[in-house]
Design a protein that fits this description.
The complex is a heterodimer of chains A (about 600) and B (about 80). By secondary structure, chain A is α+β, with helices and mostly antiparallel strands. Chain A folds into three domains: about 200 residues, Aldehyde Ferredoxin Oxidoreductase,  A, domain 1, CATH 3.60.9; about 200 residues, Orthogonal Bundle (Aldehyde Ferredoxin Oxidoreductase Protein, subunit A, domain 2); about 170 residues, Aldehyde Ferredoxin Oxidoreductase Protein, subunit A, domain 3. Helices cover about 40% and strands about 15% of the residues of chain A. Chain A has 27 helices and 17 strands. In chain A, strands 2-1-6-3-4-5 form a six-stranded mixed β-sheet. A six-stranded mixed β-sheet of chain A has the order 8-7-12-9-10-11. Chain A has a three-stranded antiparallel β-sheet with strand order 13-14-15. In chain A, helix 21 packs across helix 24. Chain A is globular and about 60 Å long. Chain B is mainly beta. Chain B has one domain: Ubiquitin-like (UB roll) (Roll), CATH 3.10.20.30. Chain B contains one helix and five strands, in the order E-E-H-E-E-E. The longest helix of chain B is centred in the middle third of the chain and has 8 residues. The radius of gyration of chain B is 12 Å and the shape is globular. The termini of chain B are far apart. Classes of the chains: A alpha+beta (about 600), B mainly beta (about 80). At the A-B interface, helix 9, helix 10, helix 11, helix 20 and helix 22 of A face strand 4 of B.
C-alpha cells in the first residue's frame, strides 16, 4: 500500500490478546486515517452507552497516510476515544518523534479495548508486540517513566505514557509522548489510566511507500519558502507564544476567566519574554520546518526551578492571563508540573479559572480548598495543580473539571467551556466565528478543529469583520472540513492552515502519497464526511442542539474595553444558518439526504 | 513635540532603539505626526505593520497621534 502501512494492531487488555488485522482499504480511502478512520471504528464498534472509564471504551492510537512521508510537518498522531470529560468522541493530536517510531514499526493504528488486571505497557518493536508488566512504573511521573522504560527496553524506543494524573483518572489527564509533547485534551490520559495501560513503547525500522515521491519533493520547496517568510521566521523564533501580543492587541486574550480580552501583564508572558528569560532552544517535531517548540529552563535567579518544554501560547493563556498570572517563571513551573504529572495545561487553567471565580463569589471557601485562591495567586495554583494530579484534598473534586465544579457549587455560568471542555485562548466576543466553532466542535471547547484566526483576525484569504456574524457559518464549516481532512492525514494543521493555498497543497500531497488524484474539492468532501461522521457518533451518544452552547458570559455579557467593546456572540443566529448549510435538521442532526450524499448511509 | 509610548511585536522588536529586549519605549515626534510618521521613525515598512493599535483601538497609517498615546505595531501572525 502507498501511505498506509496496511495493518491495525488490536490489543485486548482484558485477555492480553494481540491481533494484527489488515487495514480495510475501502475504509481507508473513505476516512483516510487519524480522527476520520478512528471515528469510523468507534461508530462501527463502540458500545455508545459505555462508561468512558470502563473496560468497554475503546482507545485508539492512530497515524495517517501522510505521517512521516516527507509531506510538510508530517510527524503527527492522534488519540481517539470516548471522552470522560465531555462524553463525546474526542480526537487529541500530538507531534514529536513518537509518531515516526509508531508508523515505522508497521502499523496505522493500535486499538485498545478492555482493562488489564494489573498495570501493563505495550512494547512494539516492528513485528514483535508484547504486553509487559508496568507495576514498577505505576506512580512515576512522565520523565521518570520514559527513562525507566528506555532502560528496560532499548535506548531508541519512543514512549507515549500517562503520569499520575492519568492513573488517578483526572478527567483532563493527557497522554504524553517524547516526555514533553501531549495529546493533551479531553481526558484521553484518564482513559489510558482506566485501562491500566501505563505506556505505549515503540521502535520501528520499516519504511513508508509513497506512490509519487517526485511530486512530494514540492514539500521541500514549500518548507524553504516558509523558513524564509516573516511568519515562518517568527514561528521559529518566538514559537506559538508570539500570539500573546496578537491576541492582547486585538482584545481577544481571555483574561480573568473570560471577563476581559486584554491582560495588562501580557508583555511579561509573551514570546519575547520567553526568549529573553527562559529559552534554551527552539525545537521541531519530526519533519517540520517551523521549529515552534520551546525548550526552556528557569533561570538561576528564579524562585522556581526546573527545565522542560513550554509554555505554548495556549498555556500562556490558560495558566497565565486566564488566572491573571503575569509571572513567566511561575507560569513555566506550572507548565512543567502539568507535563510531569500528565495534565492538560488548558483544562488545568480553565478549571483554576472556575475555582478562582467560585472563590471570589464565596461559593468556595478557604475551608473547602484548604487555602485562599485569588486571581493571580501562582503559588497556591501550583499547590492545587499538584493536589489535582494526586487527588489530594480538594484536588479530588477539581480533578473532575471546571464544569463539574461550576455545577456542584450552583454557579453553572462560571465555567468557560462547551460540552464540558474548557475553551482555548481566543475570546469569542471579539471573534464571533470562534464562538460558533467552539459551540459546534465535536468535543466542545476546542480550537484545533478549525481555528478561525486567519480569516477573522488576519483577514486571510479575505478580510472579514470579526465582530459580525456575516459569513461566519460558511467560514466555520469550511475550516472544520479542511481541518478534519488535514488531521486525518496525520500532519500538523499549522502550515496548512496558515498558507492561503493550504488545502490545495494537502490535496496534492495526499494524491502524491496514495497514488490517486484528489482535487481540493474532493479532499474537502472527505473532510465533510469525517466531520459529519463525528457528529453522528455524538448524536448516538445523545448530543444534539441543546449541547451546542456557549456560556452566558459570551452571549449576553458585553465585551470589555478595547477593540470590540460591547460585542456579544450572536450564537443562535449563526447556529441556525450553520445547521442549514450543513444539511442538518433544526436539532443539529445530519439529515438523511446529507448522509446519502456523503456515503454515510 | 509629542511623546508616545511604542510597543513593537514579534520580529519588529529588532527595531527598538533601545535594543530587542526592550519592553516598549517612548519616542518623541513632531506635533501632528501620524502612525505613518512613527513607522518612518523606526524604519518599518508600512506593509510590515499588519496591525496597528492605538490606545487599545484599531488604528491605521493615517491615525494622528497625541502625547500620551500608546501604540502597538504588530506584524502578521496566526493562532496556535
Amino acid at each position: 500500500m502507498n501511505g498506509w502501512m496496511g495493518t491495525i494492531l488490536r490489543v485486548d487488555l482484558t485477555s492480553g490478546g494481540i491481533v494484527k488485522e489488515p487495514l480495510d482499504v475501502e475504509m481507508a480511502a473513505a476516512y483516510v486515517g487519524g480522527r476520520g478512520l478512528a471515528s469510523r471504528i468507534l461508530y462501527d464498534e463502540l458500545n455508545m452507552g459505555c462508561d468512558p472509564l470502563g473496560p468497554e471504551n475503546m482507545l485508539i492510537f492512530i497515524t495517517g497516510p501522510l505521517t512521516i512521508t516527507g509531506a510538510l510537518s508530517s510527524g503527527r498522531y492522534m488519540v481517539v476515544t470516548k471522552s470522560p470529560l465531555t462524553g463525546t468522541v474526542c480526537t487529541s493530536n500530538s507531534g514529536g518523534y513518537f509518531p515516526e517510531a509508531f508508523k515505522t514499526a508497521g502499523y496505522d493504528a493500535i486499538v485498545f479495548t478492555g482493562r488489564a488486571e494489573r498495570p501493563v505497557y505495550l512494547l512494539v518493536q516492528d513485528d514483535h508486540v508484547e504486553l509487559r508488566d508496568a507495576s514498577g512504573l505505576w506512580g512515576r511521573d512522565v520523565p521518570a517513566t520514559c527513562e525507566k522504560v528506555r532502560r528496560e527496553t532499548h535506548r531508541g524506543v519512543r514512549v507515549a505514557c500517562i503520569g499520575p494524573a492519568g492513573e488517578n483518572l483526572v478527567r483532563y489527564a493527557a497522554v504524553m509522548n517524547d516526555v514533553n509533547r501531549a495529546a493533551a485534551r479531553s481526558g484521553v490520559g484518564a482513559v489510558m489510566g482506566s485501562k491500566n495501560l501505563k505506556a505505549v513503547v515503540v521502535r520501528g525500522t520499516k519504511g513508508v511507500r509513497v506512490a509519487d515521491p517526485e511530486s512530494l519533493l514540492k514539500s521541500t520547496i514549500i518548507a524553504d519558502h516558509i523558513k524564509k517568510a516573516d511568519l515562518g521566521i517568527a514561528f521559529g523564533e518566538f514559537g506559538t507564544p508570539l500570539f500573546v501580543d496578537v491576541m492582547n492587541a486585538n482584545n481577544i486574550m481571555p483574561t480573568q476567566n473570560f471577563r476581559l480580552g486584554f491582560f495588562e501583564e501580557g508583555d511579561e508572558i509573551n514570546g519575547a519574554e520567553i526568549i529573553d528569560r527562559t529559552l534554551v532552544r527552539s525545537k521541531a517535531c519530526y519533519g517540520c520546518a517551523l521549529n515552534c517548540g520551546r525548550n526552556t529552563r528557569l533561570p538561576e535567579d528564579s524562585k522556581y526551578k526546573g527545565r522542560g518544554d513550554g509554555p505554548e501560547y495556549e498555556t500562556c493563556f490558560s495558566l497565565g492571563s486566564n488566572i491573571c498570572v503575569g509571572d513567566l517563571d511561575a507560569l513555566t513551573r506550572m507548565n512543567y508540573l502539568c507535563n510531569e504529572m500528565g495534565l492538560d495545561t488548558m483544562d488545568a487553567g480553565t478549571t483554576l479559572g472556575t475555582v478562582m471565580e467560585l472563590f471570589e463569589m464565596g461559593r468556595l471557601t478557604e475551608k473547602e480548598i484548604g487555602f485562599p485562591l485569588n486571581w493571580g495567586d501562582a503559588d497556591n495554583s501550583l499547590k492545587l495543580l499538584s493536589m489535582i494530579a494526586r487527588l489530594e484534598g480538594f484536588g479530588r473534586e477539581a480533578a473532575m473539571g471546571g464544569k463539574f465544579l461550576a455545577d456542584a457549587y450552583d454557579a453553572p455560568d462560571v465555567f468557560m467551556g462547551s460540552k464540558g471542555q474548557g475553551f482555548a485562548g481566543y475570546h469569542p466576543r471579539g471573534m464571533v466565528g470562534q464562538g460558533l466553532l467552539y459551540a459546534t466542535s465535536p468535543e466542545g471547547g476546542n480550537h484545533t478543529t478549525g481555528n478561525t484566526i486567519q480569516p477573522e483576525i488576519n483577514g486571510i484569504p479575505e478580510p472579514m469583520d470579526p465582530l459580525s456574524s456575516e459569513g461566519k457559518a460558511e467560514m466555520v464549516i469550511s475550516r472544520q472540513d479542511e481541518t478534519a481532512f488535514i488531521d486525518s492525514c496525520g500532519v500538523c494543521v499549522f502550515p496548512y492552515m496558515l498558507m492561503e493555498q493550504g488545502t490545495e497543497i494537502i490535496a496534492e500531497f495526499y494524491s502524491a502519497v496514495v497514488g490517486v488524484t484528489h482535487t481540493e474539492d474532493e479532499v474537502r468532501k472527505i473532510g465533510e464526511r469525517i466531520f459529519n461522521l463525528e457528529r453522528l457518533v455524538n448524536h448516538r451518544l445523545g448530543f444534539t442542539r441543546k449541547d451546542d452552547t456557549l456560556p452566558k458570559r459570551l452571549t449576553q455579557e458585553p465585551h470589555s474595553e478595547g477593540i470590540g467593546e460591547g460585542n456579544t456572540v450572536p450564537l443562535e443566529e449563526m447556529l441556525e444558518k450553520y445547521y442549514m448549510l450543513r444539511g442538518w435538521d433544526r436539532e443539529g442532526v445530519p439529515a438523511e439526504e446529507k448522509l446519502k450524499e456523503l456515503g454515510l448511509l | 513635540m509629542i511623546r508616545v509610548s511604542v510597543r513593537l511585536s514579534g520580529l519588529l522588536r529588532n527595531r527598538y532603539k533601545a535594543g530587542p529586549s526592550s519592553k516598549g519605549e517612548e519616542v518623541q515626534l513632531r506635533a501632528g505626526s501620524t502612525v505613518a510618521d512613527l513607522l518612518i521613525e523606526y524604519g518599518i515598512e508600512p506593509e510590515k505593520a499588519h496591525l496597528i493599535v492605538v490606545n487599545r483601538l484599531k488604528g491605521d497609517l493615517s491615525t494622528t497621534l497625541k502625547s500620551g498615546d500608546e501604540v502597538r505595531i504588530l506584524p502578521l501572525a496566526a493562532g496556535g
